[in-house]
Amino acid sequence: MDLNSQNEERLFERFGRSYKGGEIIFAENDAATKVFMILEGRVRLVKRVRLVERDIVILKAGDILGETSMTRGHRRTSSAVALGECRALVFEVDDFEALLRDQSEVSLKLINQLIKRLQASEERIENMMLRDSQSKLVNTLIKLSQITAPGNTQAMLAISPMELSSRIGLDVDSVKRGILQLKEHKYLDIIDERLQIYDVDALRKLYRLMGMKEDLKKS
User: Fold this and answer.
1) Is the pLDDT reported for residue 79 higher than 80?
2) What is this structure's pTM?
């Protein structure tokens, strides 16, 4: 998280907390009073839709969550659950605002993270308009490639099937099947739990072809 190790340990002594795997960090509809910064581990944000829990995003070390607390008086719109052992800084709003004033790099991180979440939300809305799960997967891989390696024909994506499923809004098994299908057709490879996109333009062509097939089905 862009704080030097000395500052990080000093802050952890005052604001730090450790969580076990599966432990609820905060629950949907709780009063939003604290902001969290992940130092180690991963955290799932989940939202209950009727009787089903849906993953929203998987957050990693360096990410900030609970930032809606800064608007004061709000309630949590999702739950946060630790994925394995996790360490985080837990701030009251006043303390977090003081940190933002004192540490400009934290302010920039928060701004960048909010921009990425907005982009992910727009991407989800776009995917909701697509009927085919494979089209949703290909569309998301193209978007991630543009972010990770803008202007390049190849991209290496450090993202797990669980993270992809959260981003797309599909179940993990569907994502895994879709990735294997793309691998079989030489669009990508899996290297050290990362996705190597061979040719982003080829993925774009595939996406357009899938759209044309979908249009033909409708007509």
Assistant:
1) yes
2) 0.68
